[in-house]
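Ticket #1539: bound-state structure for flavin mononucleotide.
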Amino acid sequence: RAAPHPTAEDVIRADGVERRRHAHPEVPRFDHGSRVPGWDDAVDLDKDPAVVPDPAVLDVPAALRTEIEAAMARYPDSRSAALPALAAVQRHHGWCSPEAIEQAACVMRLTPGYLTAVATFYDMFETSPVGPHAIYVCTNISCSLRGADALHEAILAAADGDPAFNVRSFECLGACDIAPMASVDGVYIGPLEPDDAPGLLADLRAGRAPLPDKQLSRRPSADPAAGDYPGGPGA
Amino acid sequence: MPRPERQTITFSIDGLEVEAPENTMLADAAKYGDIEIPVFCYEPKLGDPVGACRMCLVEIEGIPKLQTACSSPVKDGMVVHTQTARVKEAQRSVVEFLLINHPLDCPVCDKGGECPLQDITFGWGPGRSRFIEPKRHFRKPLELSPLIAIDRERCILCYRCVRFSQELAEDYQLVLLERGAHSFVGTFDGHPYVAPFSGNIIELCPVGALTSIPYRFRARPWDIEGAGSICMLCPAQCNTELTVRDERVLRVLDRHHEGVDDGWLCDKGRFAYQAIHVDDRLTTPLLRDGDGELRPAGWDDALARAAELLAGAGDRTAALAGSTATNEEGMLLARMLRDALGSPHLDSRSGPPVDLDHLRALGAPALQASVPDLEFAHAVLVLDCEPVDDAPILEMRIRKGVRRNRVKLAVATSRPSALDPSAAATARFAPGHAAAFLAALSGALAGAPDLDDLAAAAGCTAPELTGLAAALEGAQDVVVLYHDRILGGPDADADAAAGLLALAGQLGLARTPGAGLIGIPEAANGRGLREAGVLPNAGPGLSAPPAGGRGAPGIAEGLANGDLDVLYLLGSDPLRSHPGRRAWEAGLAAAGGVIAHAAFLTEGIRDHADVVFPAEATAEKEGTVTHPDGRVQRLRPAIGRPGDVRPEWQVLHELSGRLGSDPGLPTIALCSEALFAAVPFYAGLTLTELGGRGIRWPVRPGAGELLPGGPDTATTGEADGGGTAAGGAQPTPTPTPAPTPTPRRSNALTAPGARLLLGTYRSIWAAPEVEYAPALKFLAREQRVELSPADAARLGIRQGDEVLVTGGADQQVRGRAELRNAIPEGRVFLEAGIAEHAANGIDGPLVSLHRATSTNGGPSGSGTPARARA
Amino acid sequence: MTPSAKLLFKGIDEPGLATLAGYERRGGYQALRRALAMPAEDVLGELLASGLRGRGGAGFAMGKKASFLPKGTMDKYLVCNADESEPGTFKDRELMQKNPHLLIEGIVIAAHAAAINRAFIYIRGEYEQQARILDRALAEAEAAGYIGDRVLGTDLSLPLVLHRGAGAYICGEETGLLDSLEGKRGNPRLKPPFPANQGLYQGPTLINNVETLATVPAIIAMGGAEYAKLGTETSTGTKLVSVSGHVQRPGNYEVELGTPSREIIYDMAGGPPPGREVKLWFPGGSSSPVLTAEDLDLPYDFDSMAKAGSMLGSGAIIVVDDSTPVLDVALKLAKFYRHESCGKCTPCREGTNWTVQMLERIERGEATPMDLDIMASVQEHIIGHCLCVLGDAMAMPIGSMIKKFRPEFEAHMEAMQLGAPVASEAALAAQGAA
Ligand SMILES: Cc1cc2nc3c(=O)[nH]c(=O)nc-3n(C[C@H](O)[C@H](O)[C@H](O)COP(=O)(O)O)c2cc1C
Ligand code: SF4
Ligand code: FES
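RESOLUTION: The complex was predicted; output attached.
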């Protein structure tokens, strides 16, 4: 989510790696701007203080209320259900909108501020509207050693701003064995080539399972002993 | 619950052998050896250390890694180093890290000169930074609320403010958003941080990130002086330090008193100082002239006119004292009425008088709990009291006890309480049914077999009663926090005091150390005024007066029917603060004269007073006041009086003299002496002894004999309970058989559903100071009609609708509907003490509600917006 | 050494293993029955005897940690750490996906050993498919009486709840995990108190990694002493190693601890692509200080890695060959840690941020060798000064890269100053010259 560094530069290519270099080796000082939405925001003094929403005045869809209450019942301390509750409202509303957070807060008897603090801490909670298809491209070390950055660019280019897609570069998704990879609506797919991008998006647009042949669930273990069962390849 | 006791141990720090209480955190223990360990995130008031800033790293022998001194409990024989090269390098590096993004705008920063970051950088920092990357820059300052500005560049993410909001005030409004270097302090979706205690974060912030908007750029630390004072805006009487520059109060800070405020202030106390210096404040006497206008007048004329009115009325004079009136003023008022005028009609409470024996019993030293007891009791019962409104700082104390010491909290109120979520048990009884409720609770504690009838009479449920009883039963020491309204406020039954005493007996409060009662009076110095003799049925020290007089409701009636003639108001405006507005309007209108001490022309004064003396602000006053837990505290003037304002005690003294009964107390010190002499249990106190911290008279030696009484002796015959020595093994309290309660069915409870039972409350913000202090104006309240969703649905009322509430004899108030799930069906709550459409405009107990057809003249907009600064 | 010792992965690709029937067919839950027939102390004794060290990163002896829990009746918790977010690590994923009941069985046995009455699995939010598989397995196990009330008719009751995270590396740190599980931001807590005394909901809590717990049934089945014969004396047993990066056959391999690293990287994972050489490798996830080609013959176990100045960590080997500039690796990592720093403590929050900015400056060619010294000193100011070890997890590898590849950094700086292209070969030559 970091903004690109806005400096004057020229580009040097070395060993196939693109490098950016300043025309003058001078430290840019005081470039203005926020890296994070919110830093520059004042409060709106016309709003009420955000206290625990009273069920008497806030409607929560019944299914959502049931789901959150069920989650609360699973724990000795109902507050543990904060993450499941946020996940539930995000699924229902598409993102953790203020309204969604208020609904979760109302059921959990917490302030919306508390839940916002939680939601903004975790990468998977969206605090601004996003497209319904989540495409997390792993760009951490192991994947990037195998071309993840190019893959990310390719998927971004293929999506071309289509509001149906929420393409994000993500930290290590725990699937470096299929690097470079992406998690598409929760389904791990890899290894991916930049050329796979259009096909992947086409599958999603058509409502098909994305690139079924490349899904992790189909992949055998690398360890030869994994096939060591009656009738297995390693037996 | 036993208070923590700490042994003294010896440890070594930088080669010095130092004695300190065991297990104090090293950061504090080092101070015993005069060694300072720098800290940012550590603030003992906030609870357990979090070890976030890493400023306090020190070397402890035997532990390879550097340790945070803020979180390392000191042990006997520990060897600590704070000056080694390793420690110094760590400290320098932390300062360097903190300064990476901290702007160098000290010259324009309000914190400059009193900034821990400045001091620590100077003392422990590296001197220069190696960080040459661009610092982050953002818009600043931004408003966090109408009271607090936030400068996020300066924030060092020490977590103090958000911990305060979440773990101390427990309002959970101020939070940290995002993660890592992107973290920032903020609120939900741009909502302002408006909460009763929000201002404390300004004092907590160790940098200039959170500043007070009213104080911004008003002064530098070297321009100002601090003056110790006491906040007299509510009975909690928090200790304050006023920041004074050029005879103006510019800021109010806490003056940490463990026995009173625990180092916190509410926002009313913190920001209402502005009302001292507003143009609306009266600074000259006013006289009502022939054409009915109040006009400025000289003191001679005003005093003469007042004396004339009083002399004319003689024993048909009545007096009310309230708000900030001191003990000395109360004493002088009582003497003027009783000695100079021969009138017994004076009161400092708004309801009918309480039986003197009961008053004495309730005030008995053995029954008095202290404020810290709230924190260490096994259980606390909050009875018909909303601490955040009635004595805000005590709410924080109760929360602290629940959070840190697992105090069991039981809340028994009519209106849902802000403390409900922290409570182990709650009960909702019908407004005005405290006596029935006390009987029912006693029954439940005594194990009465059938609670249903008792519960029905109180308007609560049997499971609520058993729940409360369960929370209280196992507890060794219980503190009961009740509000005076239970004893005979507008809607209480007369035998509530007896019921309360019976409950105290049942819970063994008088014989258990750490247990007891704390009664919150209506007026900030209600207890002091009562003890100084400002009651119709009690003289100084709760002595029997020569003659009994009328209480406040009787005074209103007497004025209206001509039995009484002149009303003397010392810091009281009954139209604002007393129930039964219609009766008071009639009384004031019929009065032959009204004389008032007032700082502001509130409605009753403006429309009815004939003589108005400009009143002192608390910051200008001298004298003593008494805290609800019996702590006599001293007020000293921090600033001079503006304009022609004269001390109230002088005015009272002068008038008595003109009426032919000179008290002969020409200085305030003599007045205090006379007070201490007149009140037996204040005997021997001196102003010097009171000092800046005050003295709780109930724990002075021999106090028990000076105010005998108490439930164990008076009501329940448990006198032998005194044999249990403090700290000794407690015999299991033998449950006293409750006075077999006879459930009385009130017809209010069985009334047809068309009408609702009226309850009233007075919010923390219902105070003239809030309306007059520019910074607080936005909090001044408009009437909101709180009702249950079920009733709202039945009456076709939606959230935010304009509602007319109609009581007896076609009285009406208008307000905005506020639906609350926690309000039991059949009840409606209105706010008292506000400027317009206050609850006292209608008489209950039953009222009817309907949606207003026209929206003219009422409040507009939805809900109750935190309107921008006026 | 028995090269065939495969306790966790043998036949793990067998179809149907993830179901209760499939698992039971292979003798699943027999170890549990056996453990439940033993007194708790004896089960704990087996765990102690096995010498099993935690597989999550710190390598603390599992039996010992379990024995730290206070005795007596109170609510005690077991939390299985399935957050697996350490870059390069993906072993727990494969275990949970293919053999979820093995983990469940291990959890129940461990709970019995430490008299625990409530358990949670904290799985990272991104593992959606694995969470579904686990949920199904939990339902089956509960229906069969392996978890829940009165396990297999004994006095042990163990509600086991799967809790999904939502994307935060720091929630793998055990106390950050506890806060997250309590519904808060996943900020690590100050230690002491340690979780064994005051963990989840202030109660005594045992926290172990997925692989650690999944090893428990094998220990009970074969006996702790027998298990201890595998591996080396201080690094007993087998370990799942996730090999990734520049190798030809990335994946998880189960090896006996003490196997030469070269064998894992080259023989099993196929080594770097043809024509490429190993330039550096992380032996235990991205948080471990880097090793070079010189270290390839070290035995892969806890102590050897520590002796070489690095650590076994989560058992994730990331191989970087000579096609990639070390600066790229450093920058990638530093950005990761900056992104994942929780922000609670100063050195980590500011130090990761500062390091990224310095590395970016180096990349842009606006730095001098002096900046390398500053950067190295910043890493030293982070190490050992933070609230948890996330800061160290960046500072140690970055510090090791500056130390071991300083000439390459300097060559880059020089080349950028001159405006000349940087050739990796040139950098390598410079390194050789140093
Ligand atoms: C920043 C950080 C991240 C961690 N991430 C994980 C993780 O993803 N999975 C894990 O099992 N342990 C992780 N750990 C280690 C845990 O704190 C803890 O030591 C481990 O779960 C204990 O289990 P074990 O004894 O079975 O290894 C992490 C530690 C740190 C400091
Ligand atoms: S605003 Fe002040 S009190 Fe709050 S985290 Fe920042 S520095 Fe600390
Ligand atoms: S004062 Fe000790 S870590 Fe902040």
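RESOLUTION NOTES: The longest strand of chain A covers residues 133-138.
TICKET STATUS: resolved
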